[in-house]
Write a structure and sequence with these properties.
Layout lengths: L1 H9 L10 E4 L8 H11 L4 E6 L6 E2 L2 E2 L1 H11 L3 E7 L5 H12 L11 E4 L8 E5 L3 E5 L5 H5 L4 E6 L1 H15 L14 E3 L5 E7 L4 H11 L3 E6 L6 H15 L3 E6 L6 H7 L5 E6 L9 E5 L7 E5 L5 H5 L3 E7 L1 H17 L1 E2 L21 H12 L6 H7 L19 H10 L9 H4 L7 E13 L2 E5 L6 E5 L10 E10 H4 L3 E10 L11 E2 L30 E12 L2 E5 L14 E4 L11 E13 L2 E7 L6 E5 L2
Parallel strand pairs: 2-5, 5-6, 12-13, 13-14, 21-23, 24-25, 27-29
Antiparallel strand pairs: 1-9, 2-7, 3-4, 7-8, 8-9, 10-11, 11-17, 12-15, 14-18, 15-16, 16-17, 19-20, 19-22, 20-21, 22-23, 25-26, 25-28, 26-27, 28-29, 28-30
Helix pairs in contact: 2-3, 7-8, 12-14
Amino acid sequence: MWAAALLLALVSQASVSAQTRVFFTDPPNSGTAVRDSIIGFIDSAQSSLDVAIYTLTYGISGSRLTDIAGALQAARARGVALRLVTDVNEETGTQFAILDVLSDGLANGVIDRSVVRSGNAGGIMHNKFIVADGWRVLTGSTNFTESGCLSQENNVLILEGPGIASAFTAEFEEMWNGIFGNRGQPTFPNSFLTNDGVPVEVRFGPDDDLTGFITNAIYSSTRSVYFLVNVFSDGSRAYQIAEALKWAAVQGVDVRGVFDEDSQSTAQWNNLVNFPGISLGDYIGGLNAMHNKLMVVDAGTPQGKVFVGSNNWSNAADLTNDENVVVLSSTWWSNHFYDYFRRLYVERSSYGSGSQPVRQYGDLDGDGVLSNADYAIALAIASGSYPPTPYHLIVGDVEPYPGVDGHIFGDGRIDAADARWLGERLGIVTGNDRIGESLLKPPGAPVSLAPCTVTAVFGQAFYIQQDDRSAGIRVETAGTPPARGQRVAVRGVLKALNNGTGERYVEAQAVSVQPGDGTGIPAPLAMRCSAIGGASPPGGNTRSVTGGQGLYNTGLRVRCIGRVTGWGPLSFWVDDGSGCSDGYSGFQGVKVSSGFLTRPAVGSFVAVDGISTMEYVNGLNVRMLRPSVQSDIQVLAGP
């Protein structure tokens, strides 16, 4: 269920009300979000559409335009001014047929150049962007093809604001007027704020030295560099990026990437795959299936940046092609794209040409399988006793869903919720109910108690209590009981002894001992003998001792100090002068049910640690203290 929900989230927009939006394809699950976002963007245009697209083949049936091409045709029909620029070498086959009909409404073998133009014979016009109505921009890695929208890994980014739109319009005007490739004039201005306040930079290749722009960001990184790249070639410009990645790894920056199976990237794969501090994945899905061109730098930090656009990491992309790169300077958006990176790195990449993922969520020790060892690491990280590595966060931060602070899933840390998620997959009881809150529930109510410490064991019954010593409870199990000091999670049903009138307990259905050595036996709460038991909690579902006052403490480990006033069968009484009496034994003080433990002499001054419990006598719940080991009884002074 979690995985299915995650996949759904990853192909949806970040926020319904957001003006800056991103959409991701989801090929294994037949996601249509990218296609729908492009069509929706076109459908919302009111006055103008300037389209720069490398490939437009989606779609045509006979001479009727469909899908994205159909949306463009419909826009023209409702009076939207359309101009389209494409690559000169792409005006063939299906694309020519679409442009033929789109430009003049006729399949006459002639493209109307007042609507469609092309260029860049020396490289390629590789952009994939639209400017709508002079203030909205759609860009990203997606060609307007069926495979680009449905079967490749791609992204679409939508930005709103007149500044960012003006930069894209200026680039479009150059190409519309026949100026392609390097004109030697860097983009300026190049920094803007979107309408919803996201700082954005835009660069266009080859004028703006895209490789230098990328490497500068890598050299400035302090925490992480994560990338998804379709082509990472063996050209000199690509090697500059590779050397920057190596440098970052040497500085301790976490460097990870996912390659497509493009043969052009083989040299850089071999260059980087065994370099210390760099971890790579090869996308599972075949040639040209991982079509993204994006990088996330210092994700989750105030300096977090996202690089997204059309340019591959190659000489051609840097020196001759018409390309674009948009940079979002935003912690929120760096978290969002980081989670998309995690999706491909964990779920859809292997080593070399492997056909199965080599990583999985929850595999914190990286051995390829989920085990109690992973759960122990999750608990240690969640408790703050073990600092997480970047790898731990990539595979271990899965809750909450939906995520927070821009995260698609997770929250940028590994906490109790993540440990519980992992425990559930391992079949470990990892409830989140607290004992005190559970005591308010009626008999028969199901409970799943969060890990607590075992404070005493009596045959098939044992006691557990919260770490903050706020509440404890008896647990009865048909299996082997845990040992004192172990931490356990318990799932079961609430009941009460003596036909529902006595001490509450959990009839356990499952008891899971938590990994690790436990936290040890908690120190007892010192209290007067007359305070043992306390008053019943509100609601009437849990009964305490008759006449009890103060805070309910039945089930807790407590300590009483006083004089031994008498012995009974497997028991003795301790009096601390607080006026405590059971009303039937004839002895002053509280009864200590010592079982076969050695009893102190009458008249001795003792400290007794034990479970605050009760016995049912003559229709009354009578307070009682129950030690479990001999060291619970300390003689402080003889008679």
